[in-house]
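Human: We require from you a protein record containing the residue sequence and its fold in token form, and nothing else.

Assistant:
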Amino acid sequence: MKTKSLLFICLMAGTSLFAQRRSVIEVPKGYSNDIGQMVSMLDNLKARVERNVINLDQEGTDFLLDDKANSPGAIIYHLAATEAYYQVYTFENRGFNAEEREKWNTALNLGDKARQEFKDKPISYYLEIYDKVRAKTKELLKTKDDEWFKKKNGTMSNHWAWFHVMEHQANHMGQLALIAKRI
């Protein structure tokens, strides 16, 4: 039994190492090194988020685990809103203006208002919003270099701000995976 357990552990460790060696962060053309690595990781996470929701029907898109939960559609909108916020924060050194708050605040804060507002739209509606925000992020990041990425911006560097967008996305990716398994 010990031999089988040891063999299983070695096999799994080897498989994990093989998978890690095959995963490479590639810098997309037109970006500085550090920014390009971040873009590559952001896009990888976005693709994994999308895989969790792409095949949801309307019932799945609007699904709520309980009366305090957020639907998959609302969570995707929330990811787009968060990224839109960090666009203005890092590229313009400000928070949302009144027009942007009107457009994004419900998605940014979620809650009761979002549960009422973000329903009866297909998952493609939310993914298109997310796609547009990401396209703008990538367009803006292409205009910057690694020195800009290192610069302090308020309480964090621009790099840290975009790392936060990435970790925020990863957190909600797990939430979406859990929800998808419950539908």
About this structure: The radius of gyration is 19 Å. Residues 5-22 have pLDDT under 50 and may be disordered.
